Amino acid sequence: MHIGLIGGIGVAATMVYYQRLTAAAAARGVPRLDLTIVHGEIHELIRNNLADRKAEQAQAFLPLVTRLKDAGCDCAALSSLGAHFCFEELAALSPLPLVSAVTPLDAYFVEQGIKRVGLLGTRVVMRTRLYGQLAHTEALALDDEIETLGQTYQEVAVAGTCSASQQDLFLDAGRRMIAAGADAIVLAGTDLNLAFDGQDPGYRVVDALDVHVALLADLAAGRKTLSDL
């Protein structure tokens, strides 16, 4: 299956998607991964996300999905959890099936025995508790600090780098959510690998990107079909 990916939102997340998807496909015995990536505009996404302009962002993504279809892709995916705020609006317009990064998470948590998660990501992801899509898993966030954490995450995503002080902020937020009863911290922002990769924070961390990549790799390998989603 030819996978289409809307990248650039941000660039660091796109690079990690590319690295991990190619590795996951190879591990599944895919001899040649069919993958096309188009570049989205992160500043436009941020403006529309903060203003809750779902229809406008869906229209901005539509030409990119169309380009993926013209390139021969069988499906499309967004390389940003934050971009999923307009997922339904885009799906209604899209000429390709969209593979959600949010939908598989609840089942994954159940499978892993995770009953309560702490969320880090964009303001909207944290406020809406992953867009209200967790039916079997309780989610918490540091509500009084969503603005600070969300702004910091936005700065990291745009810059494609994470400073020591920014990293400390995220790691400490995770510790406090674990202390509040979370079984694991979910990196519900695809650029958070910049803060957490190579770290041992002393608590369980689930990178939502890895769950999405596993699903895309299963599709590429023929282990799953779009009708399974």
List descriptors.
229 residues, Rossmann fold, single chain, amino-acid racemase activity, 10 helices, globular, alpha/beta, 2 domains
Written account of the structure:
By secondary structure, the protein is of the alpha/beta class. The protein has two domains: 3-100 and 210-228, Rossmann fold, CATH 3.40.50.1860; 103-208, Rossmann fold, CATH 3.40.50. Helix content is 49%, strand content 14%. It has helices at residues 11-27, 42-50, 54-70, 87-93, 103-111, 123-127, 146-159, 164-179, 193-196, 208-221, and strands spanning 3-7, 35-39, 75-78, 116-121, 138-140, 184-188, 205-207. Strands 5-4-6-7 form a four-stranded parallel β-sheet. A three-stranded parallel β-sheet has the order 2-1-3, with helices on both faces. α9 (193-196) links the parallel β6 and β7. It is globular and about 45 Å long. 42% of the residues are buried. The model has no long low-confidence stretch (mean pLDDT 97).
Give the domain tally: 2
How large is the radius of gyration? 17 Å
Strand arrangement, major sheet:
5-4-6-7
By CATH, the topology of the largest domain is Rossmann fold
Strand content: 5-15%
N→C terminal distance: 14 Å
Q: Which consecutive residue ranges, at least 5 long each, have pLDDT under 50?
A: none
Indicate the percent of residues in helices: 40-55%
Tell me, what's the shape? globular
Mean pLDDT: 97
CATH class descriptor of the largest domain: Alpha Beta
Major beta sheet summary: 4 strands, parallel
The assigned structural class equals: alpha/beta
CATH architecture of the largest domain: 3-Layer(aba) Sandwich
Number of helices: 10
* Total number of beta strands: 7
Helix-strand sequence: EHEHHEHHEHEHHEHEH
